[in-house]
Write a structure and sequence with these properties.
By secondary structure, this protein is α/β, with parallel strands linked by helices. It has 11 helices and 8 strands.
Length: 251
């Protein structure tokens, strides 16, 4: 059985006061989340506070990005070892905003997956298509290409200790959501594609999250799908009650 994972992606949001209040709210309600693993991915600057506040809980934490480099003259970058200094378990890699706004290629994303894994972090690898690509009917080709870069660099076994997040780009922050059937179709394709790449065991065990505007109202129907193993949650992760509702739905 694949343990569900609900991971919050706070993006560039938060303040000292709001982070403290948000985590207090999540901690107060996490007791009745028995089955799902829960994690929050915070901006770098808040990771020390997150680590301190969650140290005595079952909630994991992680970052939203990392460098491909270990150290050196890379101003503004954060390495895997720095994330480990604050006991991060997860790191989001290849989010559509990193790809579209900051020019991260499939090859760069693949290298980040490899660097994270080598350091002992669990990458949450984001894949997904634009609205134009969906309307052209090339969703599967796009997702397969994004996965292929990781497999080419590190082998299909690279996905064994990774998490995949399918995020239809047209549904991120827009209020639009793929129907449960649309989401399930792509999740099933991803699992099947990994199996065809040569490892049915990895395909059966890898957790595939849905990352396109999952919220308190639609989480239950999305999470009921056979190949949807949790959610990568954006806006709803900034509200403790909404986030907890999604976590409970994963039960």
């Amino acid at each position: 059985m694949r343990q569900p994972l609900v991971a919050g992606n706070w993006k560039m949001n938060g303040s000292k006061a709001s982070v403290t209040a948000l985590l207090d709210g999540i901690k107060q309600g996490i007791g009745d989340v028995k089955k799902a693993e829960v994690a929050v991915c915070a901006p770098y600057i808040y990771l020390p506070a997150v680590a301190a506040q969650l140290a005595d809980t079952t909630i994991a934490w992680g970052a939203q990005n990392l460098s491909t480099e270990q150290s050196g003259a890379f101003t503004g970058e954060i390495s895997a070892s720095m994330l480990l200094d604050f006991s991060c378990r997860y790191v989001i890699v290849g989010h559509s905003e990193r790809r579209s706004l900051y020019g991260e290629s499939d090859e760069m994303v693949a290298k980040k997956v490899a660097v994270a894994r080598a350091a002992g972090l669990r990458p949450i690898l984001c894949v997904g298509e634009t609205l134009d690509e969906r309307e052209q009917g090339v969703t599967e080709q796009v997702v397969a290409r994004q996965l292929a870069a990781v497999i080419a660099l590190d082998g299909v076994a690279a996905l064994r200790d990774s998490v995949i997040a399918y995020e239809p780009i047209w549904a991120i922050g827009t209020g639009k959501t793929a129907t449960p059937e649309q989401a399930q179709e792509v999740h099933a394709f991803i699992r099947g594609h990994i199996a065809k790449a040569g490892d049915a065991d990895v395909a059966a065990k890898v957790r595939i999250l849905y990352g396109g505007s999952m919220n308190a109202a639609n989480a239950a129907t999305l999470l009921a799908q056979a190949d949807i193993d949790g959610g990568l949650i954006g806006g709803a992760s900034l509200k403790a009650d909404d986030f907890l509702t999604i976590c409970r739905a994963a039960n």
